[in-house]
Specification:
This protein has helices at 12-23, 29-49, 78-97, 104-122, 126-145, 150-179, 200-212, 221-225, 231-237, 241-252, 258-276, 280-301, 304-335, 351-364, 371-385, 389-416, 431-449, 452-455, 469-491, 508-511, 513-551, 563-584, and strands at 3-4, 59-66, 69-76. By secondary structure, the chain is mainly α. One of its GO terms (molecular function) is oxidoreductase activity.
């Protein structure tokens, strides 16, 4: 039975949001970083004060009403607590990483962004979720703009349109659900009703979640915006939006079969996009998109093992993907470029960053004793146990692709490849960046060596052992096969670095033909309006001229008329009125 807490309750995310506003007023980057860490610690203490609860009996707090709708600002169960804890860890790492480099805008909006994500995962109803959903979109776009370039500004505008579109879909679904008498509690939903017909309100909510989860066709905002943020901003962006969407899918659509198809497509397709990208942070963005496919597949499978796998992999992904974005941010800070063809041999100048990048590469590729191995194996095992062969094959292909894109492109070519002019940098990453990366690496080691620490936090009770002979042999075979594939491609001269230039993605539709159509509509509308306005002007001029001819100084009605004529005219008018009155009655 649900335990209901009465009285005033504060969402830990709201505390971070308030702290973000205060941080914007503080002087000095170090002062803002310290204040951010203090705020994260306070939010963590507040979250811990609520304790935890099983999925079937959550603790509800902060209840009230708005416009007649019952709201619940805090729902505590193992799922919401784990994601809130994850986002607090990410916020702390972001503050440390940006100790010397985060601008006032990034420090402030980074806290508000993290607070909105925490508020969203703790929301007990869809309307509260929408409020934090939109706040996350609005705060994160300022982080994209923090890149400070014209390209960042334009990418931020496109990002804002897509994110607001997600919010519009969400509020439309909520409104339709409320209009039909549906319950706004944030619980599991179905895309079809009892008669098997498509449920439109739920479909709109599903699309809203899909935009932030970067489903295929809806994904282009992610690789467009993330690489254009600053070194610090890209790390912030990698942590919250997409994982907030994964949480929403786990909460709202567990076991929805279509998610297996969508997730499998994500896992495979974006590996090839990453292989074709020349900007290394864009490679990471596509890799992030591929890793989201693992989580979406797991939500679609819907078993306790699979859902635990989705949550566990989301936890690990925030840490190791953030660590890789940190490493590339450090490279950008020292070398001034992210072009794959301009980097190489950086292990000489940046040995500690190279070690961090190596750990990140080992984690994402699933090498044993790293976090990626124990979390990926859960989803792959769930696909195998429940005989979803196409999902299992897709995840295997994605694992091989991760070795090529991250192990080879990010680590080998950047740090071990031939030394280039742009790579002649002096000095490793600044100390705060190294500290943040080191803490993330430590988490990857701890989870990899002691997975039971993470298992104990997962939402569902399911006994799972990652370090079995089958798992170890299968994963090592995949990794060795990937290395062999790379060696053969290198030998044959096929492992060339992609050329610089625009990578054609689905956004080409609105960038090229979409722009042509839009400009055609603009010019067509302008031409029609010009004709309409010309007609209005001509008509007004005609009326004015007619009035002038009758009422002007020389007009007919302005001249003097004889008294007899006026008497006759008045008599005619009165006679006409008498006739009309007679007929009417």
């Amino acid at each position: 039975m649900t335990e209901l807490l009465t009285g005033l309750a504060l969402n830990p995310g709201m505390l971070l949001i308030a702290a973000g506003i205060i941080v914007a007023l503080l002087p000095g980057r170090q002062v803002r970083a310290i204040a951010s860490l203090v705020a994260v610690g306070a939010a963590w203490a507040l979250l811990a004060s609520y304790g935890s609860a099983p999925m079937e009996a959550p603790v509800l707090a902060g209840q009230g009403s708005l416009f007649g709708f019952e709201l619940t600002s805090v729902r505590i169960d193992r799922l919401s607590v784990l994601f809130s804890t994850l986002f607090l860890i990410a916020a702390a790492l972001n503050a440390i990483y940006g100790w010397l480099h985060a601008t006032r805008l990034e420090a402030s909006m980074g806290l508000i962004y993290a607070g909105a994500a925490i508020g969203g995962v703790l929301a007990g109803d869809l309307l509260t979720l929408f409020i934090f959903w939109e706040l996350a979109a609005l705060s994160s776009v300022f982080i994209v703009w923090g890149g400070g370039t014209h390209a960042a500004f334009k990418a931020g505008m496109r990002y804002l349109v897509i994110q607001v579109g997600s919010g519009m879909a969400l509020i439309s679904g909520i409104a339709l659900m409320a209009a039909t008498g549906g319950d706004l509690a944030f619980t599991a939903m179905s895309l079809t009703d009892e008669a098997g017909a498509l449920n439109l309100p739920v479909l709109l909510i599903f699309i809203a979640f899909g935009v932030k989860a970067a489903f295929p066709v809806l994904h282009f905002w992610l690789p467009d915006a993330y690489p254009r943020a600053s070194a610090v901003g890209a790390v912030m962006l990698s942590a919250f939006t997409t994982k907030m969407a994964i949480y929403a899918l786990v909460r709202g659509f567990p076991g929805e079969d279509i998610l297996m198809v969508i997730g499998a497509a994500m896992a495979v397709i974006f590996i090839f996009f990453g292989a074709a990208a020349s900007d290394l942070r864009r490679v990471l963005a596509y890799s992030l998109n591929s890793q989201l496919g693992f989580m979406v597949c797991a939500v679609g499978i819907g078993s306790d093992l699979a859902l635990n796998g989705a949550v566990a992999h989301a936890f690990a992904s925030v840490i190791y993907k953030g660590m890789l974005f940190m490493a590339m941010g450090a490279v950008l800070t020292r070398a001034g470029t992210m072009r794959a063809g301009e980097l190489g041999g950086l292990y000489r100048a940046m040995p500690l960053t190279a070690v961090i990048a190596f750990i990140g590469a080992m984690t994402i590729t699933g090498v044993p004793f790293f976090a990626g191995f124990v979390t990926k194996s859960m989803t792959i095992s769930a696909a195998g146990y429940y005989e979803h062969l196409f999902v299992w094959l897709a995840l295997i292909v994605a694992t091989v692709g991760a070795v090529q894109n991250i192990g080879v492109r990010i680590f080998f070519n950047t740090f071990l490849g031939p030394r280039t002019t742009a790579a002649k940098v002096s000095g490793d990453a600044p100390l705060p960046m190294l500290v943040a990366m080191g803490l993330a690496a430590a988490i990857c080691f701890i989870v990899g060596l002691q997975p039971n620490l993470l298992w104990s936090m997962l939402p569902f009770d399911y006994e799972y052992h990652a370090y079995t002979t089958d798992h170890l042999i299968t994963q090592m075979q995949l990794i060795l096969f990937s290395i062999l594939l790379f060696a053969l491609a290198q030998k044959a001269g096929l492992a060339s670095t992609p050329r610089d230039g625009a990578l054609v993605d689905i956004d080409w539709v609105y960038r090229v033909p979409g722009r042509v159509v839009l400009m055609g509509l603009v010019h067509g509308t302008a031409a029609v309006w010009h004709r309409v306005w010309w007609g209005i002007q001509a008509g007004v001029k005609g009326v004015v001229k007619g009035l002038y001819n009758t009422h002007g100084p020389e007009g007919a009605l302005s001249r003097s008329w004889p008294v007899g004529f006026m008497a006759l005219f008045t008599a005619l008018v009165l006679g006409l009125m008498l006739i009309v009155t007679f007929i009417a009655y």
